[in-house]
Amino acid sequence: MTDDLVAALGPLLAAEASAEAQACGSDPGDLEQTVWLRLLERIETHGPPRAPEDWLRRAVRAEARRTRRRARRERPYAAEPADRAAPSPEHRVLAAARHRALREAVARLPGRCPRLLQALFSPEDLTYREIAGELGISQGSLGPERSRCLGCLRRLLTPEVASREARG
User: Fold this and answer.
1) Using CA of residue 110, residue 116, residue 118, residue 121, what is the dihedral sign?
2) What does the alpha-carbon distance between residue 134 and residue 122 come to, in Å, rounded to a whole number?
3) How far apart are CA 93 and CA 150, in angstroms?
4) N or C: lower Cβ tally within 10 Å for the chain?
5) With contact defined as beta carbons under 8 Å apart, do 119 and 134 qualify?
6) Interacting residues of 28 by C-beta distance below 8 A, sequence separation 6+
7) Segment (H or E) for 155
8) Hey, what long-range contacts does 91-97 have (CB within 8 A, 24 or more apart)?
9) Could you report the per-residue pLDDT of 29-69, keeping only the tens digit for each?
10) Which residues contact 132 (CB under 8 A, 6 or more apart)?
């Protein structure tokens, strides 16, 4: 019974769906699938419709209206949800690990270097004058001291970076 109904209604559904799909901004195949699903649901609950052709035309139009209403309510995203501009959880974890390793390396530096580098990279954005006053050194010696500290940090981190890349 259902096979006969599907065979008889197939061409009519294809024609109706392609006629209505353009107006509702849908794909005819999607509209057809939805109406077939509605037909199967109806057969399961109430049995086959008495006038299947009329039911099918009404069902196609009802689905087209439903699709148009849904399209009016939906709003596109400003950016894709999986936008590459936003860092993934893996990238955030790796960045946190790099920052932690850098903080640990800075803490192992000799002399005034840890305090100097922490002051230079402070979120308060201190001036050289403020940093020199905080560390008790002249403002003129701040640049050369910073260069020495960064050189120490580079030498300290080079073996760690090289060993990580070798594992890769």
Assistant:
1) negative
2) 13
3) 25
4) C
5) yes
6) 14, 17, 18, 21
7) helix 142-167
8) none
9) 998 999 999 988 988 899 888 898 999 999 999 999 998 88
10) 138, 139, 141, 142
Q: Which of 6, 13, 46, 43 is nearest to 28 (CA)?
A: 13
Give the pair of three-digit tokens for residue 159: 């073996």
* Segments of the chain assigned E as strands: none
| Strands, E assignment, 20-132 | none
Closest among 41, 45, 51, 50 to 12, alpha carbons compared: 51
Single-letter residue type at 51: A
d(CA 16, CA 22): 11
CA distance 148 to 151: 5
Copy the structure tokens of residue 110: 């000799």
Written as one letter, the residue type at 96 is: A
The CA distance from 126 to 132, in Å, is: 10
